[in-house]
Amino acid sequence: MALGPMLYAQTDSLGDQSAEAVRTQSIEEVLQSVAMNNPELKSLIQSTEAAQLQLKTDNMPEDPTVEYSSFYSRNTTGQSGSELVVSQGFDFPTLYATRSRQNKLSSASLESGLDVERRRILLEAKTVCMDIIMYRQLGELLDMQSGIAEEMLELFQKRYETGDATALELNKIKMELMNVATEVADNRAALSAADNTLRAMNGDVELVFDADFYPLAEDVADPQAAMEEYISGNAAIISAETAAQAAQKQVSLDRQGWIPKIEIGYRRNTAIREAEHGFLVGGSIPLFSNSRKVRMAKAQSVSAHNRLAMAKARAQAEASSFIADIRETKAALDAYDEPLMRETLSLLKEAVEGGQISVIDYFVEASNIYTNLSNCITLQNRYQKLLAQLYVNQL
């Protein structure tokens, strides 16, 4: 998604478009919708555009001035004379050229700053989508757990009535159902909250994301290349670089601040019998207004370069951290054998139904398996989020 005039043009027409509900299983389509409808992003775009217009305004010549004076004399009836002065002040031409180059750098820094915020918002939206997928997967697991418990309750209710099961076994199944019901309610509440968050990020335009699986994500085969991509495309670094260049250009601009301002104009004086015409030429010497400006600009330039160094160091540390976490999370994920765990659950169910193990033993073993399956789902969510953070520059 590119920045600049195209993005601004999109926002200009948003007010005239009637937003339509979006239903999709694609995270990319969700992000496109959020990019168009997010209120915070709209506000940031407008603020950036206003700041860029202000830069252009600051490099315009001063407004022309018009002065008119009327003179009166004791020996003359009515007006004895008048004076009209029309003048225009402007900076030395080289200042406009230098300021224009500095403004281009400042404008580029503003756009890069906007890109930082845009990626932050889209990454947040993508994270919410991943949480929605996780809650749906956990919901499927809880539904399976609840379904098995209900089947066992029905079976052992009959056995209890015939004297083949104890009240303890029956109560254990009922307590298991109560625990699962609580977890189901909590998971549904979390899923609803995530759905509402996504809708709010979409400018309160209805957005239904009903996927229950993650898009295919490739492993980080070349960590060094991934780190270089993260750093080279980091919008915060790009913004800091252009800001440092703009600050350096400001030093050059302020060094020219000693050049006098120029004022030219036209003067017309009228007396009783005749009028006099002439030109006005003047200027102002910045003896005091430019005092210490160069020193201030140099300090700001040093500060901007320090922020650039900090941004690069931060990006390097973030990329290293993401890659290390991805490796550890992937290793933990590889330790889980989900098909084996689901097969074991089926075998345990058959064993308890066949009387080979007790209900107590079944729930002890099944509880561990459900915990591992839940951990596997949570780890997968963490893994996908880490990949999203590492490749945030692709948003």
Structure notes:
By secondary structure, this protein is of the alpha+beta class. The protein has a single domain (33-62, 94-262, 313-394), classed as Outer membrane efflux proteins (OEP) (Up-down Bundle). 67% of the residues lie in helices and 12% in strands. The protein has ten helices and six strands. The protein has helices at 5-12, 27-37, 39-58, 93-162, 167-201, 223-232, 235-255, 293-334, 338-353, 359-390, and strands at 22-24, 65-72, 79-90, 207-209, 261-270, 275-284. The protein has a four-stranded antiparallel sheet, with no helix packed on it. It has a two-stranded parallel sheet with strand order 1-4. The longest helix has 70 residues, at 93-162. The N and C termini lie close together (7 Å).
Tag the structure with descriptive keywords.
single chain, 12% strand, 395 residues, two-stranded parallel sheet, alpha+beta, Outer membrane efflux proteins (OEP)
Parts with pLDDT < 50 across at least 5 consecutive residues: 1-18
Provide the CATH topology: Outer membrane efflux proteins (OEP)
Portion in helices: 55-70%
Structural class assignment: alpha+beta
CATH class placement: Mainly Alpha
Strand content is 5-15%
Global geometry:
elongated
Number of helices: 10
Oligomer: single chain
Strand order of the largest sheet: 2-3-5-6
Task: Please name the CATH architecture.
Answer: Up-down Bundle
Topology, please?
Elements: H1 5-12, E1 22-24, H2 27-37, H3 39-58, E2 65-72, E3 79-90, H4 93-162, H5 167-201, E4 207-209, H6 223-232, H7 235-255, E5 261-270, E6 275-284, H8 293-334, H9 338-353, H10 359-390
Parallel strand pairs: 1-4
Antiparallel strand pairs: 2-3, 3-5, 5-6
Helix pairs in contact: 2-4, 3-4, 4-5, 4-7, 4-10, 6-8, 7-8, 8-10, 9-10
